[in-house]
Amino acid sequence: MKALSGLTVSLVAITLATAGPGTAAGQKAGPTQADLIADEATPGDVLTYGMGPRAQRFSPLTRIDASNVGKLVPAFAASLGGEKMRGQESQPIVYDGTIYVTGSYSRLYAFDAKTGEEKWEYNARLPDGIMPCCDVVNRGAAIYGDKIIFATLDAHLIALNRLTGKVVWNKKAADFEAGYSMTAAPMIVKDKIIYGNSGGEFGIIGRVEARDVNTGDLVWSRPTIEGNMGQLNGKDSTVTGKTNASWQGDQYKTGGGAPWLGGTYDPDTNLLFFGTGNPAPWNSHLRPGDNLYTSSTLAIDPDTGEIKWHYQYTPHDGWDFDGVNEFIPFDAKVGGKMMKLGAQANRNGYFFVLDRTNGKFVSANPFVSKITWASGYDKAGKPKFIDANRPGAPSAEKGTTVFSAPAFLGAKNWMPMAYSQQTGYFYVPANEWGMDIWNEPIAYKKGAAYLGAGFTIKPLYDDYIGALRAIDPATGKIMWEYKNKAPLWGGVLSTAGNLVFTGTPEGYLKAFDAKTGKELWKFQTGSGVVGSPVTWEQDGEQFVAVMSGWGGAVPLWGGEVAKAVQHINQGGALWVFKLPKS
User: Fold this and answer.
1) pLDDT tens figures, 205-226
2) Minimal CA–CA distance to 330: which of 37, 43, 58, 56?
3) For residue 129, which of 198, 177, 191, 178 has the smallest C-alpha distance?
4) Which residues pair with 354 in a beta bridge?
5) Count of beta carbons in the 10 Å neighbourhood of residue 83
6) Quick one: which of 120, 119, 115 has its CA closest to 74?
7) What pairs with residue 445 in β-bridges?
8) Bridge partners (DSSP) listed for residue 300
């Protein structure tokens, strides 16, 4: 961890803009709010992170299906170039003949969607001393009107002209010297760009914020740690929760809870759903109480930033399980009654279903084979802790070591799952690993790692770590699984063609039968696939695209697991596939 906290990157700002100026005749004016809301039903483009505001990552396209996917071939590959590899976790945005992808080290590219030719490239000017927890990744951009907007490792939000790559506005969101960073794809709701910060390992305060999409000016700010004051239209609004209700003394000032993965939006309830990260420090003995609102999903009013409800997956988290994973709205019957639900596959090993209108607990079922920290959840949605498996309180040096499963990298980490409107299953990229974990004394220091814990990650099984699992949310039952030797660290795509796509660290993009899990196709991209695939229709053909480039948290934090994948080459390329013309 000491090596990570000292990570420094120095870059020269480069803006290459080869596209013509302004909006030429025949070019579209740009996506509207109505276009973004309708994204999941308009397969001619990909306008949002998650392929729709609900982020179900489901496409109604059927040109590529289980019967012909084996014929899929590359249309082109576009290199990000340079020496800046390390973890290409981006999801492409596709609009008006252009594919937009972010790259590691806070870069944004525009490629021609027909040829792969680069139109322009923007490299953010990053200062020395940035402190990203889990590699120099970026997961994607947001598009609106004439703008393409993304976040940077030094906690800035930058809007570029989508045709030229020129800066429209650049706003500082937080202080990188205090440990803040930003890696998630922002989202646009009601003419506001909405995002969350990163940095929970440095004792920051998590915040979900909204800015005017045209000016970048702050509209509202909602801290995710109880006791901190929110902002609305330049004035203090309301305190999050109640000061000192679940944090002692001044601990709420360094409580973590970063909403570092971004959110989803449900037009039916007009609610944003943001997950929050771990409490700081990891050493739970130093912060008695539930430590609200860490390791939770928050339902937030997009107009005011007020929290409408919350559900805490791991109260008093002592394992870095977080609650930051995506919360996906879906509708289904419960007890014969159609309900508005939401699902999350949590790092703590349980697959949750909640009533998304009020946050009421519906169910929690294991989706990995070994869970040691709790024996399940009661009817009220509270975990049944196994106290002996909480890391011990430190004395002069360190506390009692325990073995915990899942490991802190989670039964599922950041990589987004998909929901199929065709099968009714969620497709979850899971990992089977555990850790030895112990607590250590720690004191807060601005810009320094604030863990108070040590750990060693270990695989649970010799033959696999990663497992793509199809889960029936009605029962929690695993309907099928695909096992992978290395951890799975990329997103998932489902389609009405009875297909599920995901990538592997070994370099493959793979396609599976959505009903049975049978592997139908694979392609070697040359580096680990840790991005999120998308699909769209263009000129009468269906395309599938994914970023290739190994990196992320596993090689940095993975312990014995990291050693097992250290031979994988880094890379940086956008791969696009289609069926050959007959």
Assistant:
1) 999 999 999 999 999 999 999 9
2) 56
3) 177
4) 342, 361
5) 8
6) 115
7) none
8) 272, 307
